Amino acid sequence: MSEKKPVEKKQTGKPSFFTRAKNWIKALPKRIANSFKNMVAELKKVSWPSKKELINYSVVVVVFLVAMAIVVGLLDMGSSFLIKQLINL
């Protein structure tokens, strides 16, 4: 009689889904901590504006917003006037 060899599973070299999931969960706290460390390191490199520069930039933004509000308001009033004139024809 001939002996049958046991069937061997082929190794694909890729870990199973559950092994990968376990490794991902185990590495999660370290990855989160590294993200925060990198964020702090980048924030230290930022060149923050002085108080005077911050006030100047804020004034420029507010003036621009007011100017744009006036432009949009005038366009709205003009288009409303034109539509009313077209309806009254």
Assign a percent range to the helix content.
Answer: over 70%
List segments where confidence is low: pLDDT < 50 over at least 5 consecutive residues: none
How is the main sheet built? none
The radius of gyration over CA amounts to 33 Å
Count of helical segments?
2
Order of helices and strands: HH
Main traits of this protein?
single chain, 0% strand, 89 residues, mainly alpha
Q: Helices, strands, pairings?
A:
Elements: H1 17-45, H2 51-87
Q: How does this model look, in words?
A:
With 89 residues, the chain is an all-alpha fold. It is built from two helices and no strands. The protein has helices at residues 17-45, 51-87. It is elongated.
Short structural summary:
The protein has helices at residues 17-45, 51-87. The chain has 89 residues and is mostly helical.
